[in-house]
Amino acid sequence: MPDIPRSTAEARRATVLHRAVPVFARHGYHATPVTAVAEAAGISQAYVFRLFKGKLELFVAALDHCYELICRTLRTSAETAPGAGPDEVLEALGNAYADLIADRDLLMLQIHAQSASDIPEVCEAIRRGYAAVVETARELSGGTDEQVQRFIALGQLCHLIVAADLDGVDAAWARTLTRGMRHPTSRESNSQNP
Predict the structure, then answer these.
(1) Which ranges carry the HTH tetR-type domain (predicted)?
(2) What does the alpha-carbon distance between residue 110 and residue 131 come to, in Å, rounded to a whole number?
(3) Rounded to an integer, what distance in angstroms lies between the CA atom of residue 35 and that of residue 117?
């Protein structure tokens, strides 16, 4: 099926979501004005409000975009482990996720979303996102509930290691947490940050 060109509004919406991720990742939901996202996207605040009903809808859409990217990445990585067992597939998925959060914007957006989870729409987006990741991991790996739970738990540990830069801590407790984990070691965020 040939690619159907997107309307200008659809293309702008995609651009705004792409630019919203690093902006919200830097300052979180509460401290980020819509004007900052509009500036990063190169459009007016008024046009952002034509595309999204408000900051909450924009933040939730950016978070949904983040989880969609995670699931797409997991699907792509599963293709590198054909015929492998659940543990091997989940390891491939974990490695792909570790590479993905080398873009600290995706990591920090998730962390900021958790800090705003008292907002029902944000909490629902987090639940929706984790449901998609869990079901994608289960489907791709054929793993048991316990195997998928371990996969998610290790992903959360990877969040902690990267967010707190535990690779840079020379202490027994930090080595306990980082031992055997493969994750990004750079605290640099991607070049799209404002």
Answers:
(1) 10-70
(2) 14
(3) 23
Beta-carbon count within 10 A of 194 CB: 11
Residue with tokens 């959360």: 156
DSSP per residue over the chain, as a string?
-PPPPPPHHHHHHHHHHHHHHHHHHHHHHHH--HHHHHHHHTS-HHHHHHHSSSHHHHHHHHHHHHHHHHHHHHHHHHTTSTT--HHHHHHHHHHHHHHHTTSHHHHHHHHHHHHTTTSHHHHHHHHHHHHHHHHHHHHHH---HHHHHHHHHHHHHHHHHHHTTGGG--SHHHHHHHTT-------PPPTT--
d(CA 19, CA 8): 16
| Tokens (6 digits) for 185 | 């070691």
Interacting residues of 172 by C-beta distance below 8 A, sequence separation 6+: none
Place of tokens 């997107």: 6
pLDDT digits (tens, 9 = 90+) for 104-136: 999 999 999 999 999 999 999 999 999 999 999
Amino acid, single-letter form, for residue 55: K
State pTM to two decimals: 0.86
| Phi (first) and psi of residue 82, to 5 degrees | -65, 140
Q: List, for residues 155-181, the tens digit of each pLDDT value.
A: 999 889 988 989 889 999 999 999 988
